[in-house]
Amino acid sequence: MLVAAIALAAAAAAGPDRSLAGCGGVPVVAHRGVHSVHTTEDSAASFLRAVQKGADVVEGDARLSADGTWVLMHDPTVNRTTNGRGRVSRLHDATLARLRYTDGRVGVSTLDASLTPLDAAPAQLQIEIKPASPGRGALQRFMAVLDAHGLRARATITSFHPAVLARLRRLDPGWQTAPILTHAPRHAASMRRYGGSVDLAAHAVTWRAVRALHRAGVTVQTWTVDSHPTWRRVVRNGVDGVITDQVSRSQRWCRSVG
């Protein structure tokens, strides 16, 4: 693991291709890193690739192993992205370390190891807490991992479960947090209690919804935008960040937004 971390740090230090960063001031957020058949999503390799591609923000998902270690994994099971089977929460660290990703790399990435590329890069981090009710100790370990990589000032912690964000902010109000929303909130100002930012589903992004949130002092990122028409629509409606699986195509899309 140490050798892998050193390799990731060295590759990141080579510098990103900043030509893909930004879209007329709207940050490009690499959804689960930059992934393909050669690089599995939500892995240390996909995070490194996102940094190399010059994504403004690297986004991923965190789950707890049976040993209480935070690892990168979107799904509740390892079935889709590895050669193993079973729920992440029931698999021990030693088992996860032996699994092989669909891209051939061995070892499910811990959150800690995956953040190494950000140590020497300007990219920000957006990380989703997947568990619906992580305990106090788990949340403290989560924050400690981010702090160890110096990410407090450039990380946003997200969740579909507002109670998780509220619990984390009670433990340490110094973190930027954002609830993930499938619909525009009825009362935009109520979102400020979660830290002044939201992740709003692309289908719910309208000029009126974004304006209401902005007037309430809330910034808006949107997910997941993987087509040119949707990109144009959400950017023209004033979002503050675009989460996409298509980081490599974003430069061309950005040029088309007037």
Automatic annotation (TrEMBL):
Species of provenance: Nocardioides mangrovicus
Limits of the GP-PDE domain: 26-254
SUPFAM superfamilies tied to this protein: PLC-like phosphodiesterases
Gene3D superfamilies, per database record: Phosphatidylinositol (PI) phosphodiesterase
MF term (GO), any: phosphoric diester hydrolase activity
Record-level GO BP terms: lipid metabolic process
Pfam families (alphabetical): GDPD (PF03009)
Protein name: GP-PDE domain-containing protein
